[in-house]
Amino acid sequence: MLNILNDIWPHITAALTLLLTFVASGHAVLHKRDTLSAVAWVGVIWLVPVLGAVLYVVLGINRIRRRAVALRSDQTRYRSSQNMPYYFQTNIEHAMQDQFTALSRLVDKIVQMPLLQGNRIVPLVNGDEAYPAMIEAIDRAERSVALSTYIFDNDMAGRLFLDSLVCAVDRGVEVRVLIDDMGARYSLPSISHKLHSAGITAARFLPTLLPWRMPFVNLRNHRKILVTDGRAGFTGGMNIREGHLLREGPRNPLQDMHFLIEGPVVNHLQKAFAEDWAFSTGERLQDEKWFPLIEPKGAVMARGIPDGPDEDYENFLWTVHGALACAKSKVRILTPYFLPDSALIKSLDLAAMRGVKVDIILPVVNNLRIVKWASTDLFGQILEHGCRIWLSPPPFDHTKLMLVDDVWILFGSANMDPRSFRLNFEFNVECYDQELAARLEALIHIKLQDAHQVTFKDVKSRRLPVKLRDGIARLFSPYL
């Protein structure tokens, strides 16, 4: 019997190895959308038997999106147009140029939320403008306050918001605060303990202390949303940190931009918050104090764009591609982290080759050095076809903004990097308005006055050790 087993076990091993190789290869062929990625993984699986299949199972399968979809699959969605007067959703196309009509139709299909008329949107520069306006809105709230942020530091800025929220609760206002679990750990002790001690209803998004649940490091709620009484909203790139209060001379100053929003599109901010809150706590926010009927406040057409590794997968990325394809004369992009994939680099290059002036404005000093190195290694691919890259001076600029042809605006929480494109939950707003675009263009012009333009020669003249460092950092860009 032992001799028979000795004779057949190599054949059994070979059969199992072949079966494992076929199954892993088949999975890669069926599920890898990118052809080069599929070919690469199939090659590894066949050239390195067993180990190649194991590597594919561990590293090649996108568990982030699958996990996100599974986590949020049974939650209530707030994507209907409830509480939206019909006339806010119609008669929009006649007010737009053909190129923006096409872009609006595209985003309709991407987001499946209506473009709404009647909004007022005001840019707020740094925490010096944004925080007082946000705190004033909380202080004026009579019925409800919904606050979601990635970072809520236990510092001077955090205490300003804490005091205002406590006063709101004392007035009988319904207050809900959602902080990302990872972002809550940026300061110790966390502000969460003070929120709970003060009687404020607060929760953390995907909390975990378990090492084996560290994949949640990628499923972060990066959204920044404040809505008071369901009618006044704030969103953008700004966390709650004293570094944004530049007039106070903080140790680690941060430039950024936030936006005050009034009008029907505030409903989109509230829906995004309500979904995250329901997911995190099970409580559904539905009545009129959270979702009142909103009257028009201005002339801006706007729409919320939720994005995340769940049903909203790549909404932001598709919108950016669509805007670049529609651009005719000018594109301005401000982002603190710039790690475009090959497809986005091609979209940027094609726009420039069509004669569109593409300006990408990045901070010369970055708080994440490896991201800066990886980004620098990509500059050559972008500059060689006519795009322009500018490096703005310190302090570190955390602004996230995109303008197209002095009409279309995109702002919010998302960076131009793989983490925002595919791994985190983000919220952005698209707007169609020449006056708002002109105000933002003026702010960009101020930044460009002191910025340094990067040339193709600058990129090519880097020393060999620097090129190697930047190139190695770029290899990690899908995970940065």
Question: Keywords for this structure?
Answer:
two-stranded parallel ribbon, Endonuclease, Chain A, alpha/beta, single chain, 17 strands, 15-stranded mixed sheet, 3 domains, 480 residues
Question: In words, what does this structure look like?
Answer:
The structure is a single chain. With 480 residues, the chain is an alpha/beta fold. It folds into three domains: 2-61; 113-303, Endonuclease, Chain A (2-Layer Sandwich), CATH 3.30.870.10; 315-479, Endonuclease, Chain A (2-Layer Sandwich). The chain is 43% helix and 19% strand. The chain is built from 16 helices and 17 strands. It has helices spanning 2-31, 35-47, 51-60, 63-72, 98-111, 126-140, 156-170, 191-197, 266-281, 315-326, 342-353, 369-383, 418-423, 434-449, 456-460, 464-475, and strands at 116-125, 144-149, 174-180, 201-205, 225-228, 232-236, 254-255, 257-262, 300-307, 330-334, 357-363, 388-392, 396-397, 401-404, 408-412, 426-432, 452-454. Strands 4-3-2-5-6-8-1-9-16-15-14-10-11-12-17 form a 15-stranded mixed beta sheet, with helices on both faces. A two-stranded parallel sheet has the order 7-13. Helix 12 (369-383) links the parallel strand 11 (357-363) and strand 12. Helix 1 packs parallel to helix 3 and helix 5 packs antiparallel against helix 10 (315-326). The chain starts with a helix and ends in a 5-residue tail after the last helix. The relative contact order is 0.12.
